[in-house]
Amino acid sequence: MIVTKTTYLLVRFVNIANKHVLSRCSLSTDRSESISTALKQFYLKVHPDLFTQYPKEKDVNEKSLQLVSAYLSGLQRNEYMASISVTFFTKLPPNLPPPALAQLVPHRITLTSKDLLTSVNSILAALKLPTVNKPKEKNQADQYDIQFKIIEIEKFYDFTKIPKISIKTWLTNNVQAARVIAKRNQELLSEINDKVNSIKERFKLQSIEYSNDWSVSQFFICLRTLLLYADKWHEKLLTLQGKRLIFGNKTCLLQDGSLELSANDPPVYWDHVICCELTDSDKYMERIASYEDTIRQYFHGIEIRRDPDSEHLCGAHMYLYNLLQLSHHLDLNRHHEAHRKISWENFHLFINPSSSEPSLTNSGYFQINAYDATMDILDFMIDNREKAKQTRDSYEKDLEKGNSLLEKLEKQFNLTEILINQRIKRSDINQCCQRLLNEREHLLNVLTKCRLKIDKNYNLAQNGTISIPWDWSLTQEETI
């Protein structure tokens, strides 16, 4: 059998499904194998290569497989996935002997569940294939036993054995390689720059962004794929005027109206989001603004913003759901002190559906989500008003100082570019910059003309960026 791209996508999902379902549903090994076997049976009934005599149906099955693969992969990553409807054709044996053609039967499948196992069973049931039974609930004692064992396993790792290395050794051994990689990619970077400017100008975009961890060639492939379909999507993409186009880990409309496209998703799934979600982006943004205003009124003037040091930007679907739930829950708690007596002007609220509990960010923002108990949120905000103000004031000072230090560092070391990990505290970034400036005579010749990133670990990225930990040591006792 010929292995097509669609074949690879589904086989890849089948291979990873066992691990996901095992961890999410506490399934046994036998149950995990049942999932794999069931999906393989589905695959053998709808594989496009079985329909070479029926070009139209083959094309339908191929596109549907791509959509289903992307949908299940999104659930695999615990993302909110918009409902999709797909059609698959299967064959019935012909009533007459060969060369009579087989009878083709269409199956319409709508996936709405946010649970992986339920979605898989919906697909199997639609094609009248055996489904996989859901596992029995484990008792509370069993859950604690499993959790305890997992924690105990972590204790076997000896963190003292992590190799130590000084910044001078790391840079001496890796800077030349970084320069070679950057030089090798220079021609490609110039071509990428031309394509980015062309797309930005055509659709009046604010920016086109991608992850620093990607290779240059990976980003180039994304741009080339977008250009292949640009004529088809022209009218739709014009709605992105003044917004960002991001190549990241998911494909969806984002909470600020920007668009994120995943390099791991097939173009047919890009097509689904661009032609459906992006077309309705104005409606999403209106509803988001309305619910944000409701929450702002509850807290008497609080600013709702994304945390400046957070790289998290969730999909519009999930963000809108969080706003709706928060608005409803807050409306039921209008008796609380947080609403009745206190003004929240000059305070900031970061609604993050991925946060685990109410907290203060490094920038002094209150971070909450709709899944937290409303009373816990309100009590936390009341109890931490003063701390939030102090943290915010300190952050503003560190930010102003940090911008000056980064500019000074880039100029004195003649760096091509300097980047930072946004998740590191600004005070720690400032400490790192100041120490680099203090050791300028030891590091100047090594770092000149480099693309440097202040991060948590040493690393050499595929685009030539060289990373150093913010707490680097010049004379550290080395173990490698």
TrEMBL record:
<protein>
    <recommendedName>
        <fullName>DUF4460 domain-containing protein</fullName>
    </recommendedName>
</protein>
<dbReference type="InterPro" id="IPR027989">
    <property type="entry name" value="DUF4461"/>
</dbReference>
<dbReference type="Pfam" id="PF14688">
    <property type="entry name" value="DUF4461"/>
</dbReference>
<dbReference type="InterPro" id="IPR027986">
    <property type="entry name" value="TCAIM"/>
</dbReference>
<dbReference type="Pfam" id="PF14687">
    <property type="entry name" value="DUF4460"/>
</dbReference>
<dbReference type="GO" id="GO:0005739">
    <property type="term" value="C:mitochondrion"/>
</dbReference>
<dbReference type="InterPro" id="IPR028031">
    <property type="entry name" value="DUF4460"/>
</dbReference>
<keyword id="KW-0175">Coiled coil</keyword>
<feature type="domain" description="DUF4461">
    <location>
        <begin position="167"/>
        <end position="473"/>
    </location>
</feature>
<feature type="coiled-coil region">
    <location>
        <begin position="378"/>
        <end position="412"/>
    </location>
</feature>
<feature type="domain" description="DUF4460">
    <location>
        <begin position="30"/>
        <end position="124"/>
    </location>
</feature>
